Amino acid sequence: MNIKNAAPDYPIQKALAERWSPYGFEDRPVSEADLRSLFEAARWAASSYNEQPWNYLVATRENSTEFGRLVSCLVEANQAWAKAAPVLVLGVVSLQFARTKQDNRAAVHDLGLAAGNLVVEATARGLSVHQMIGILPDQAREVYRIPQHFEAWTAMAIGYKADPAKLPDALKERDLAPRQRKPLNEFVFAGRWGQPGVFLPQHPKPI
Ligand SMILES: Cc1cc2nc3c(=O)[nH]c(=O)nc-3n(C[C@H](O)[C@H](O)[C@H](O)COP(=O)(O)O)c2cc1C
Asked: How far apart are CA 15 and CA 19, in angstroms?
């Protein structure tokens, strides 16, 4: 078992347990068929009023000019490692309902849901995704002529994770670092804020 896999306290699906965000990627392209399936998975995400507020801009390393344009939309700290990934994606969200022009308060939530679908599909196919909030939205708007009411919000690096042993020290350390999570009783409450749900072991027993 990969040491980065989740060590869940309760059983979860394989693709969820095997997902993690690598900093190192193999120099190996992602097939067009896989890319189609990743965005197909995103397409079938739930969204408020079925608005489907997500849009994507994609660049592969095979086209170095296009790839460079997308890299230029990431903050430097992310450029440093993400430029080695074979595929980069910018997630762009429509913040208004297309029909009514009202604000869509669920838009960013739904971009995240679509990302969740994409990431699970990728993991099931042996691919890894590293999501990023560290992007340059103004630069993205300029580079891609993103229209008003749409915002570049996040990015994703997609590819086959590298063997950490073959990575430079800084990346190796990050890709070998243990993963940590809060236990369920710190964030799943019932009855009042801070009280763990009754189905959790630390729920105070009635006297
Ligand atoms: C919306 C979002 C934005 C993130 N932004 C960045 C980022 O800009 N740079 C980065 O190195 N990691 C980023 N991450 C990765 C998180 O740091 C990572 O998911 C978290 O540490 C948990 O690790 P895991 O994904 O391996 O479980 C982001 C993750 C998400 C979901």
From this structure: 6
